[in-house]
Amino acid sequence: MISVSNVRKLLYLRQAMRNQWLKKKEIEEIQRRMMRGMIVHAYDNVPFYHRKFREAGVTPDDIRTVEDLRKIPITTKKELKENFSDLIARGVDPSSCWMPRTSGSTGIPLKAAYGRRDEDYQKAIALRPNLACGQHLRDPWAVLTAPHHILDKKHWFQKLRFLSPTFINIFADLQEQIRLLEEMQPRVIDGYPSALYLLAREMKRTGRKTINPEIIFSTAEHLSPEMREGIESTFGIRMYDQFGCVEMGRTAWECPEHAGYHMDIDAVVMEFLRDGEPVASGERGEIVYTGLYHYAMPRIRYAVGDVGVPTDEECPCGRGLPLMKEVEGRSDSFIQTPDGRIYPQMTFWAIMRTFAHAEEIAQFRVIQERTDAITVPVVRGKNYREGIDEEIRRHIIGVLGEDVKITVSPVDELPRDPTGKVRTVISNAQIQW
Ligand SMILES: [Zn+2]
């Protein structure tokens, strides 16, 4: 039976599919109107934001344009965690909400509440890139994911009997994952880049060509150039990366032109800031979100901890959704030297490339314990030899300099974080932007 909620989801989806082709100015006007609605709602119905606005001397009348949002102070992760009940809008019963949780890989585990309508809108926005990249309603679709996602509430489209993904547990043995995929023969595979990469590497190693997806999406982790290359060359197709977070939902995605990531500005406002000021086109900035449909639990000027590069360039596809040029991963995926230089994790992929290709190492991680101390556990590859650790150490010192104490040590395996993600670069030091 088709429920009211499913009809609403389909209407949202149709609207989202239309919006992408509007002119940029037209979508910006939709964004502005949604933003106004959200600000009035948050001021009137959400104790946390009512207080925050009052303290900053701001009323909804002061926030007419997206630029005006800057009059409102940032909301931090810590605030989101500590004020959960004050962030729930009046009249909303939290127990009726969908509440995805973050992994806490950044040290602050969070939950976000989505009301029924919010959730319907979020699902439509999440589905838009898949359809835009050629996925069809009845395609066999495999999603490589961690068990806690599998146990989440079933996807709404499963109940509609189309767009129904089959979940593959990435904690299962790799051979078992491959067996399931061979049996299923998905046209579409979706998953964490690290899970896709491990799968691709195994297929390549064994020379098997038994899984032949036509579309691959990656999501939820930073996709390094190495991983992209490994996955694309194994399956012989270009893949599409998608961007978002548990707190805000899907927010940006690659279209078939691969010219950057289209931002879902009919779902969120994305600001890119450095020292509290917007960066110019082409510059790296910390992403601050304002949710436009997150009514049960508004998130206004929320600093999620991700970093990206906005651009004024237009995509040849003709979609009016503006582009973000690059996703550089979380701000705790950067390494900072004592003299203030900041390196994204790609730097370390570049350094390790030769060792990885020669199969001297199988995997590595870079952990900044303190500004002046970095440890690099490496999993031995099949061609591992004496002296590799020292060579790697020298290469890293060659880039970062002598002020940092680098310790490279071989290990048997690198633990995944509790959500199943494999993070390459982890900083426990506070980055000074
Ligand atoms: Zn495009």
What's the total count of β strands?
19
Strand content: 15-25%
* Strand order in space, largest sheet: 2-1-3-4-5-6-7-12-11-10-8-9
What separation lies between the terminal Cα atoms? Answer: 53 Å
Count of discrete structural domains? 2
Radius of gyration: 22 Å
Bound molecules: zinc ion
Indicate the percent of residues in helices: 25-40%
CATH architectural group of the largest domain: 3-Layer(aba) Sandwich
What name is given to the CATH topology of the largest domain? Rossmann fold
Number of helices: 13
Task: Note the overall shape.
Answer: globular
- Largest sheet report: 12 strands, mixed
Low-pLDDT runs: none
Under CATH at level 1, the class of the largest domain stands as Alpha Beta
Structural class: alpha/beta
CATH superfamily membership of the largest domain: ANL, N-terminal domain
